[in-house]
Write a structure and sequence with these properties.
Helix 2 (32-44) packs across helix 3 (52-60) and helix 2 (32-44) crosses helix 4. The protein has nine helices and eight strands. The longest helix has 18 residues, at 98-115. With 223 residues, the chain is of the alpha/beta class.
Length: 223
C-alpha cells in the first residue's frame, strides 16, 4: 500500500511523512532527495543547470540509492551535501528536465518495488505521476510566511530571503511542463499552518483507517 504525500517546500512533508511511517511501521521514501542528489551531481561536474544535454549526461553518470534515510550517490552519503543553498537554488531547474524526471521516476519506483512493503512516499508529484494509483493521497500546504519560518529554522538563513526563494520555487515547480507540482484530484488537503506534526499525522491516520488497501502494482516507465 502507498500513501502519497505531496506539497510545496516547508509545508511539512518530510517531518510528517517520517513520523507517519514510524507510526504505521511502514517504509519511508523522500523522492525530493533524489532530485537534490541529481542536482549535486550536476554541480560537482561543473555543469550549468541550463545546459540540458550536459545535465542529462552528468545525472546519468552516477547511481542513486536511498537507504535508512540516507541519500547515496555512487555509495557516498550525501544527505548533508544535498541540503546546501547552492543545491536548493539549482534543483528546480534540474528537476524540470524531462529526461532527469524519467530517470528519477525509475529509481523511485524501483525502490518501492525492491523493498516490498507498505510505504509512505513524499514529494511534489507522487499522487499525480509517481504513484497515481496510491490508495491514499495527501496534499500538505501552509502559509508562505510560516513555510519560510520553518525552513529558516532548519537552515539558519534569513526568513525573508527564504520566503522569496520558496515563492520562486513554487512558481517554477507549478508551471513546469513535465510533472507540475499540483495536488491530485482525489487528494485530501491539509493546511498545516497552525497544526502540530502530531495533529497532522493523526488526521492522515484517521483517513487511512476509513479506506481499503487493495494490492496494486506500478509498472516501470520505458527507457
Amino acid at each position: 500500500m502507498i500513501i502519497a504525500v505531496d506539497g510545496p517546500g516547508g509545508a511539512g512533508k518530510s517531518t510528517v511523512s517520517r513520523r507517519l511511517a514510524e507510526r504505521l511501521g511502514w517504509l519511508h521514501l523522500d523522492t525530493g532527495a533524489f532530485y537534490r542528489a541529481a542536482t549535486l551531481a550536476v554541480l560537482r561536474a561543473g555543469v550549468e543547470p541550463a545546459d540540458t544535454d550536459a545535465v542529462v549526461a552528468a545525472v546519468g553518470a552516477v547511481r542513486y540509492r536511498q537507504e535508512m534515510g540516507r541519500m547515496l550517490v555512487d555509495g557516498e552519503d550525501v544527505s548533508g551535501a544535498i541540503r546546501t543553498p547552492e543545491v536548493t537554488a539549482a534543483v528546480s531547474a534540474v528537476s524540470a528536465i524531462p529526461q532527469v524526471r524519467t530517470l528519477m521516476l525509475r529509481y523511485q519506483r524501483e525502490w518501492v518495488k525492491g523493498h516490498r512493503g507498505d510505504a509512505v512516499v513524499e514529494g511534489r508529484d507522487i499522487g499525480t505521476v509517481v504513484f497515481p494509483d496510491a490508495q491514499l493521497k495527501v496534499w500538505l500546504t501552509a502559509g508562505l510566511a510560516e513555510r519560510a519560518r520553518r525552513r529558516a529554522a532548519q537552515t539558519g538563513e534569513d526568513p525573508a530571503l527564504v520566503e522569496v526563494e520558496l515563492a520562486r520555487r513554487d512558481r517554477a515547480d507549478s508551471h513546469r511542463v513535465v510533472s507540475p507540482q499540483v495536488p491530485a484530484a482525489d487528494a485530501i488537503h491539509i493546511d498545516t499552518t497552525t497544526m502540530s506534526v502530531a495533529q497532522v499525522v493523526e488526521r492522515i491516520v484517521e483517513r487511512l483507517a476509513a479506506r481499503e488497501s487493495p494490492g496494486l502494482t506500478y509498472p516501470l516507465p520505458d527507457g
